[in-house]
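Exercise (ungraded).
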Amino acid sequence: MPELSLLIDKLEREHSLSETEYRALIEGRNETLAGDLRERAVQVRKAVYGNTVFVRGLIEISSWCKNNCYYCGIRAGNPKAERYRLTPEEILLCCREGWALGFRTFVLQGGEDPWFTDGVLEPLLRQIKAEFPGCAITLSLGERSRESYQRLYDAGADRYLLRHETADKSHYESLHPAAMSWDRRMECLRELKQIGYQVGCGFMVGSPGQTARELAKDLKFIEEFHPAMCGIGPFIPHKDTPFGDRPGGSVELSCYLLSILRLIQPNLLLPATTALGTLDPLGREKGIQSGANVVMPNLSPVSVRKKYMLYDNKICTGEESAQCRGCLSARMASIGYEIVTDRGDPKTI
Ligand code: 5AD
Ligand code: FES
């Protein structure tokens, strides 16, 4: 195995390493390597995106979910989870508010809620597109049939976020009950891409049972799948889930992986996630300073925010966070970055 700094040179040059090499880079992580990776990632990010940060207005449309992922606070099996769903009219109101604030991308995210049929979503997507010309719509509504993905695309959805959660099948099976299939999840991602969506995948850092081996597989998967976006953030336990007493992931390792991902794919859209900001008050700033280039302020009505509690202590859920957009602009300005009013498509390079 060559010296680890040589691996970083190779990664920057070739945008590819073997799984064994990714693993060595993860296992050999130390302050010096992390600093070196971070500097190079920021350089690459600046060459592609300058000091601009893309924003997405996140609208959490439903806390109902039919799934039972062991890590997630809104899993069907959590009787303490408070449930809500926004009406199409309420979602449109969020978009209106967001448009006025300069958002040009709306992310409709929710649990897998059977109430949101294609018949409900199609007219909503068409209305959003008609009222806000030039906006991009991202959906993050979990696994659906290929036919449904196609219908939603035809109705105006441009992008789809579906975290793969882990590229290792048996690890996936340890995070989810038997009713959920890793093969189907991976198939969904391929279908979404074939249909023409800009696709986002992603994973949690420090999920129970995850080691450098699983993370190396995630990196290799992303290198090969070549998504438009990749959402990563630390695992944070939620007290009312089977993983409630497991240790959470770390901000440092999450940032290290963000830097590696930036070198794997220079134009990758990489959010500095809410989970990063939850573990560390400066987590999102650290994410940007490690190579991320997207933030996703919460645009959901303040009245429902505490009910979309994927993990404990999630930020931006109180009255004081009504205006996340302003908060994030100030945070980005404080580290020399600027949020732009733009759809924020990936740069072709
Ligand atoms: N900690 C961190 N991230 C979580 N997610 C769900 N539960 C947790 C948790 N406890 C992430 C998953 C999911 C996304 C919407 O949120 O990766 O895909
Ligand atoms: Fe939500 Fe700061 S980003 S309050």
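Further reading is listed at the end of the chapter. For now, observe: Residues 297-298, 316, 321, 324, 327-328 surround FE2/S2 (inorganic) cluster (ligand 2) (CB under 6 Å). DSSP finds 14 helices and nine strands in the chain.
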